[in-house]
Predict the structure.
Amino acid sequence: MALRVIRKEGDPVLRKKTVPVSKFTPQLVNLIEDMIETMLDAEGVGLAAPQIGISKSIIVVKDNENIFEIINPEIISGEGEVVGIEGCLSLPGIYGEVPRFSRVEVKGLNRYKKEVNISAEGFISRIFQHEIDHLRGVLFVDRAVKLLTPEEIKKISEKH
Ligand code: CO
């Protein structure tokens, strides 16, 4: 396993639409392991393959208990709308209020090519939507209804 460099806004790979994974190889497993390691090292809650310069449809997401890996993920349904604050490892220091579905069903494959289906709500649902956006070259700032001011960011970081 190895840490990968996280690409920052301005890197064209972040704006490219990814291609679906078709070959389930040991290299794919290595890539997923590296994504997980890189996400944890950066203290992120999600990472999409373009963020490490790989234009393939793979995301990893974590909550308090689990780490999810989804290959070729798709949102098959979404309901409700909730506005919440997001940041991104590729846009350090920037936070914004972003409307998202409050609840989503996500479908995809795991590293063994087995189908996975996840119903997510709350913050984790937001992360799935954020990471799947990365696979289409969409960043949260594209969807943000408001970017936070430095004062607002300071207030939030003091709470944590
Ligand atoms: Co992001």
Summary: DSSP finds four helices and eight strands in the chain. The mean pLDDT is 96. The radius of gyration is 15 Å.
